[in-house]
Design brief:
It is a multi-pass membrane protein. This is MFS transporter. It is found in: Membrane. The protein is mainly alpha-helical and 390 residues long. The protein has 2 domains: 177 residues, Growth Hormone, Chain: A (Up-down Bundle); 193 residues, Growth Hormone, Chain: A (Up-down Bundle). It contains 17 helices and no strands. Helix 4 runs antiparallel to helix 16 and helix 11 packs across helix 12.
C-alpha cells in the first residue's frame, strides 16, 4: 500500500503541470482586448470566475473529505479540459463567461484536494514532516511548467491569439488519466458525517472557534489575493512599456522561473527567518511590489516584478504549510477550501474595483492603491496571527 501511495507524488506533479502549463496566460488579456473587452470587463470576468469558485469552494472541499480526494480531482480535471474546449470556440464576453464558469467549478474541485492528497499521502508514509519541501517542489514544478508555457504560448500567439486556447485543451486533458490513477490514502478511513450543518461546523471552527487557525487562514488568503491580483496587471503593464507579445511571453517565463526556483528553498528561508520574520517579510515584499511597480513605470518596475515573484515563491508553500500543521486530516481539504474561498471573495471585490479604477484613472495609480490595501490587510493579519500564536 505504501508503495502505491508513494506513486501519488509524481501523479500530483502531472496534475499540477496540466493545471499550470498555461499557454494562454502570457496573452490572455491581449486576447480579451482583441475581442473588445475593457480592463473593467477583464477583471469583472475574472471576478465572476472567482464567484463561481466561491460558490462551490467550501462544499467541494467538504465533498473531497467525504466522497474522496481522488474523485474530486477526477471531476475537476474533466471540467478543466471542457472549459478550455469551450474557450477555443467562443468570442465576446458571454462566450468567455460560460467557459470561465466551467473552469471555476472545475478549479473548486481541485483546489484544496490536491494539497490534502499530498499531505495525507505523506502522512500515511510517516513522512508528513516533508510536506513543506514536497509542496514547494510541486509548486516549483508548476511554475517551471508555466514558465515554459510562456515561451510556447507566446510563439503560438504569433499564429493567432486564439491558437494557445486550442492547444490548452489538450494540455488540460493530461490531468484526467493522472487523477484516475491516484490512490486515495484515506479510502479505508471513517468518513465524515455528510450534512450542511457539519460543513458550517467546520467553517465555524476554522474561522471562529480556533483563533490560531483563523488568522493563519486570513493571512494566507490576503497574500493569495494579492498575488492573484498582480498577475492580471502584468500584461497591460508590459504593454504600456511598448513590449511585443513575444517579449511579454519571455518575461512571463522568467517570472515563473523565479517563483519555481525560489519555492525550492522556501523551507530554508522559513527556518532562517522564523514564522514572524517570514510573515513580516512577505507583507512588506508583496505590498511593496505593488507600490514600487506603480511608482516606476519603466524597466525598473520590471525588476520589481521579479522581486515580487521571488517573495511569492516563498509565501505560497510556507503559508499553506502553516495551515496544514494545525489542521486535522479529516477536515483538511475543507479547511484549505475555506482559505481559497476567502481569496476568491476578496478578489471578486477588489479585482473589478481596481479594473474600474485603471480605466478611469491609470494603471500606475491602481497599483499604488492595491499595494496600500494589501499592506493594511496583511499587516493587521500578521498582528492578530502573532497574538493568537502566543
Amino acid at each position: 500500500m505504501t508503495r502505491s501511495i508513494s506513486g501519488n507524488i509524481p501523479k500530483l506533479y502531472l496534475i499540477k503541470i496540466a493545471k499550470w502549463f498555461m499557454l494562454t496566460m502570457p496573452i490572455i488579456v491581449l486576447f480579451y482586448q482583441e475581442n473588445g473587452l475593457s480592463m473593467q470587463d477583464v477583471l469583472t470576468l475574472k471576478g465572476i470566475y472567482s464567484v463561481a469558485v466561491v460558490a462551490l469552494e467550501i462544499p467541494s472541499g467538504y465533498i473531497a473529505d467525504v466522497w474522496g480526494r481522488k474523485k474530486s480531482l477526477i471531476l475537476g480535471s474533466i471540467l478543466g479540459c471542457l472549459g478550455f474546449a469551450v474557450y477555443s470556440f467562443s468570442s465576446g464576453f458571454n462566450g468567455f463567461l460560460i467557459a470561465e464558469l466551467i473552469l471555476g467549478v472545475g478549479s473548486s474541485f481541485i483546489s484544496g484536494s490536491d494539497s490534502a492528497m499530498l499531505y495525507d499521502s505523506l502522512l500515511k508514509m510517516n513522512k508528513e514532516k516533508e510536506y513543506l519541501k514536497q509542496e514547494s517542489r510541486v509548486m516549483s514544478v508548476g511554475n517551471f511548467a508555466e514558465a515554459l508555457a510562456g515561451i510556447a504560448g507566446g510563439s503560438l500567439a504569433l499564429i493567432s491569439l486564439r491558437t494557445p486556447f486550442i492547444f490548452q485543451s489538450f494540455i488540460a486533458f493530461i490531468a484526467i488519466p493522472a487523477s484516475i490513477l491516484l490512490v486515495d490514502p484515506n479510502q479505508n478511513s471513517i468518513k465524515l458525517k455528510v450534512g450542511f450543518n457539519h460543513i458550517l461546523g467546520i467553517v465555524k471552527f476554522s474561522l471562529w472557534d480556533n483563533a490560531k487557525l483563523r488568522w493563519n487562514i486570513v493571512f494566507s488568503s490576503v497574500i493569495g489575493c494579492a498575488t492573484l491580483t498582480l498577475a492580471w496587471f502584468i500584461q497591460p503593464y508590459l504593454r504600456d512599456l511598448n513590449m511585443e507579445v513575444s517579449t511579454i511571453g519571455v518575461i512571463w517565463t522568467l517570472l515563473n522561473l523565479t517563483v519555481g526556483i525560489t519555492a525550492l528553498s522556501a523551507h530554508k528561508a522559513e527556518e532562517y527567518l522564523g514564522k514572524t520574520g517570514t510573515s513580516v517579510f512577505i507583507v512588506i515584499g508583496i505590498s511593496g511590489g505593488f507600490i514600487l511597480t506603480g511608482w516606476f513605470n519603466s524597466l525598473i518596475g520590471v525588476g520589481v516584478l521579479f522581486f515580487f515573484y521571488f517573495v511569492r515563491g516563498i509565501a505560497t508553500p510556507v503559508l499553506k504549510n502553516y495551515i496544514n500543521q494545525i489542521t486535522e486530516s479529516e477536515m483538511r481539504a475543507t479547511v484549505l477550501s475555506v482559505r481559497n474561498f476567502i481569496i476568491r471573495i476578496c478578489f471578486a471585490i477588489i479585482g473589478p474595483f481596481l479594473g474600474w479604477y485603471t480605466d478611469h484613472f491609470n494603471l500606475s495609480s491602481a497599483l499604488l492603491l492595491a499595494g496600500t490595501i494589501f499592506f493594511v490587510l496583511g499587516g493587521i493579519s500578521v498582528i492578530f496571527m502573532t497574538k493568537a500564536e502566543k
